[in-house]
Amino acid sequence: MDIWVITFLSVTHALRAEKILKNNKISVVLIPIPRELSGPCEGLAAQLQEEEIDQAIVFLEDNGIEMVQRGVKVNRQ
Asked: What are the pLDDT digits (tens) for 19-36?
């Protein structure tokens, strides 16, 4: 199963992103950053539906949320 994620510079940005996306009716779940993307770093990523990634990025950019990785597909087995 593939998941689509956006990663952030900080947990604070992830929490703000979650609020912005939910307020705009985007389905989002915060998850630990997948190991494939994080290496030794820890933090939160937003897991989204593939069809909502582009709109989510626009909402987050418009609200000044700094993203590290945008719309990355991660294979989860």
From this structure: 999 999 999 999 998 888
Instruction: Locate 67 and state its tokens.
Output: 């993203």
> Residues 6 or more apart from 66 whose CB is under 8 A from it?
8, 9, 13
* DSSP 8-class letter at 34: P
Identity of residue 50: E
Full domain range(s) for residue 34: 2-75
Residue 50's domain is classified under what CATH number? 3.30.70.120
What is the predicted pLDDT for the residue at 40? 55
Place of tokens 């915060």: 30
Number of compact structural domains in the chain: 1
What is the model's pTM? 0.88
- Which of 76, 16, 1 has its CA nearest to residue 46? 16
